[in-house]
Write a structure and sequence with these properties.
The protein is of the alpha/beta class. The chain is 45% helix and 19% strand. The longest helix is centred in the first third of the chain and has 19 residues.
Length: 211
């Protein structure tokens, strides 16, 4: 039987399920119905059931979902049951803020090193994570297995650095640089355009006022 293709809309909702289920666990909730979960998440109970049925369902009629089990299973679906080695390229304010975010390690994303062009940053550590010079990047990738490269550098440098990263065997890029990257089809890119997100918020504010 052919493998079912999961829509991007469902994939985008999975981290929300995971986050809400984690909060339920912290509050000591053991079981929850799709209806109660829908009230918390502002997603219909039907949508929740449809989403989870793509992966096997996990619930029972009249019984609901075992919160811990569902949390664990969604974590596996998201690949959070294995560690992912990460490097951050760009050790400026944004790069340092990401390096200081301890929840990454809790989710299995381990930041191994940072890279920058500023010689004043060479040799310093951000929360124990060493900053190396960009000239060391190719050699580092040849000697270390890195799963994800995070680009927090100016867009003028992003394209060239992405080529180095791809040539170094990295198959996933989290791109904060304000430019689109053209990479081979087997390399995954998740673009995070902060200004575009802010503009969407601005649009919604403006149209709410007009309404």
């Amino acid at each position: 039987m052919a493998e079912r293709k999961i829509s991007q809309a469902i994939i985008r909702r999975l981290p929300r399920y995971y986050r809400y289920l984690g909060e339920l666990l912290e509050n000591g909730v053991e079981r929850i119905s799709s209806l109660d979960l829908s009230v918390r998440m502002k997603v219909t109970a039907s949508q929740i059931r449809q989403d989870l049925n793509n992966f096997g369902g996990f619930g029972q009629q009249g019984y609901g979902y075992n919160v811990k089990y569902l949390y664990t299973e969604i974590g596996k679906i998201l690949g959070l049951d294995v560690e992912h080695n990460i490097i951050i390229i760009g050790a400026g304010n944004l790069g340092q803020a990401l390096a200081n975010y301890t929840n990454f390690e809790k989710r299995g994303f381990v930041i191994k090193s940072m890279f920058d062009t500023n010689p004043r940053l060479h040799g310093i550590s951000i929360r124990g994570i060493p900053v190396r010079m960009i000239e060391e990047l190719s050699d580092y990738l040849n000697k270390n297995k890195i799963d994800i490269a995070v680009l927090t550098l100016p867009k003028t440098n992003a394209v060239d650095v992405a080529k180095i990263v791809v040539n170094g065997g990295v198959k996933a890029i989290w791109n904060f640089a304000h430019t689109d990257l053209h990479v081979p089809s087997d390399v995954l890119v998740e673009n995070v355009h902060l200004s575009e997100s802010l503009m969407r918020l601005s649009y919604n504010i403006a149209n709410t006022k007009r309404g």
